[in-house]
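Reopening closed ticket. The problem is back. First fold of the pair:
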Amino acid sequence: MSLKQQALNGYIWTYAEQFGGQIINFFVNIILARTLFPSDFGVLGILFVFITISNVLVDGGLTISIIRKKEVTEKDYSSVFFANILISIILYVIIFFLAPYISDFYKKPELVAILRIFSLTILLQAFVVVPSAILTKSLNFRQQTLMKIPSIILSSAIGIILALLHYGVWSLVWMYLTQSFFWALFHWLFSDWKPKLIFDKALFKSHFNFGYKLSLVEILNAIVANIYQIFIGKYYNVLNVGYYTQSLTLRQLPISNIYGSASKLFLPIFSKIQDDEVRLIQTYKQILSVLIVVIAPILFFLAVFSEQIIVFFYSEKWRVAAPFLFHLAIAGIFAVVCNFNLAVLKIIGESKLILKIEFINKLQTFIFIAATIILGLSIEYLLYTISISAVVGYLIVTFFAAKHLKIKILEPLFILLRLLTITFLSAFCAYVLFTFCFQLIFIQFINLLISVLIGLILYVSLTFAFNRVIVNNLIWFLRNGK
């Protein structure tokens, strides 16, 4: 099989793993949300940051180091493997003894036992790092998918059964723990590689010197990605963390499956044309408009009908989560465009520039959150910082992207505003139909379905009427994606 065929085959299996896993998790999440309470999800939500950072440290950027090295020997694999095991043990011991202090920080005594058990996933993850890197290096994504999906299914079944037996937050803990266990077990059973009692200090040091910089960036990203859970859990309450995490799960489903898949094509497309300034700018505008025209209506409708969608999927007890979903969905539109601009800058700019932009972006998010807490404002005001910070972040990144593309900053802004106007009009019409026209005719779900369908038809019609070129761009993008 040629490299091109391997890459295509790998992409298909990677997408199958991503899409299949997310669909399974989505429906399992609905069942658990209807069975458990928001506070159960909130408890785990405030602990994820510790697990995420620990897993980053266990990996240490060593996976990428192994993948990028042309000539990799058994000494490389085994040295990294045993280093991973040692690091995971050290991290688990640290978390084990820090658990009471973390519990005191959040004033939740039950967190001690939960964190100590939940953190066992760190030890299990250490057994996966090297085998997974070997499969990735050989483009064997099929094997990874055939191990990942069963892991999700088996652990989800355990989580649902425990939830139905009223184990509360522990059903979530054991679900994630058993998923890590099955993931590690399948690698051990079905992987051709097994570690040998070898440890080369010099080889490990070379991998570490490359990987630790990546780890620092990933740790920063992990902290920022969980920053709302950290502050909401500390200064508001765990219940609101549950509302936030579940709303984020709903928001991420369309983003991951639309932008996440499309983003794999950006690097090869822009890499080929980065020296052709005219074509680069034209392609940038084409893809930007396509991204907005596809993702904006989904997230905008998700925001407008946030209350109805939350109640439909998660039941009445989650109604309070609607404002969380509203702001996260609005922020998601700007986050997608922001990430796209960053992807372009990574190709045409310098790594130093990316670091500078990321720092400024994360700093402004922290300032908004800190200001809200210092002023003693309610959770409702904190939610506004989600969408406001996303808009500010979009403006910052767009400024640098426009500067390096040598276009006026108003050009990408105009593209966004034009398409958002059409999206707003369509969503507004759908909301009016839902609120005033169909209430006495249909049951609420049918009312919602018809209103959204009419709104989307109006959106497509307006797009065809006033932005026909974008339709051509979409066709172009799909052809280039193949």
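Second fold of the pair, where the issue appears:
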Amino acid sequence: MNVNTSFPVESETSQRRPAISDWLKKRRWFLIFVLGPTLLAALYYGLIASDVYVSESRFVIKSPDEKRSQMSTLANLVQTTGLSGGQEQTNEVLTFVRSRDALRQLERVTDVRAKFASDNADALARWPTPFGSNSFESLFKYYGKRVEATFDSEGGTALIRVEAFAPRDAYEINLRLLDLSEALVNRLNDRAQETAITEAQSQVELASARARTARIALSQYRNSQSLIDPTRQAAGVLAIADTLIAERAGLQAQLETMQRITPQNPSIPTLRRRIQSLNGQIASQDSRVVGGQGGIASKLGGYEDLIVEQEFATQSLNAASAALVQARAEAQRQKFYLERVVDPNVPDEPMLPKRLLSVIVVLACALSLYFIGWMFMIGVLEHAPKD
């Protein structure tokens, strides 16, 4: 008698299918929200995600006057705490690297769009993104994800980190950004120097014009009044008058002696005539000094005013010239320069993506969200009203 043994096998198979179906049904949310994203992440990072190369460079901004010996104690304390003289300029450069201006200038010196849209990149990683556009704003957002500019407070250096899909592309973008940063520092130096020196130069020009005006006014006054130096001329006239007065005094004494001893001396009339002549000469000399509007004394006030103005203008010119020299020296001392500590490197192997770590992160996030949702549903069911 033949016995058909296929029935138990078919029965066992039919029993397994509902069991697997029930198991899948019970765990469908876990499979959808945890296993599904993890498998997709493993598929993407394992087979699709393109290699990303990273190029780094480091620099500092220094000033030739950072170590000057006349620093105060407070300045020394500030410098030892890491607030160097060029940190403010470093922050300005880092802000520039992260800005739209840097991207626009970068587009002029290299084809950054083509580098970010490389054929070596997968569709999700390259620019433009699947849901993005070809606009500059879209490029700028992508640029912010691929270019990092930060300050390393521990090492005291600024870091530029560039990600690209080819080693040479990452190196070239980093190198161009470093060149643009150095050019920015030079422009800031020129602007600061120009501002300080221009102001000092304008003061020198004003003082020069004032001194020139004073000299011209003094020359015109001398020509109009027919004199060179009233003070010296008045002194010369007074010296002549003093000589004549001394001579008159001698003759007056001689005349008095003759009149007392020999009243009939025939020389007495001659002496009297000489004394009268000296009186006229003395009066003439006095009138040259103090004789109304034509006298030297009437011209002395205007001359002294012009002399004072000329001396003051000359002193102002000297002070302005000294300030200009000092401004140039100070601008030179405060000049900053960018020093490359680490030049951009050409990476020889990709640094990103971290494939295994990325899959683990996706799994951890999915598990966290799943358990949060599961606990939330448990709480809702526990507090639900029972029929």
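Update: turned out to be a display glitch only; the data is intact. The first strand starts at residue 53 and ends at 62. Residues 167-225 form the longest helix (59 residues). Please close again.
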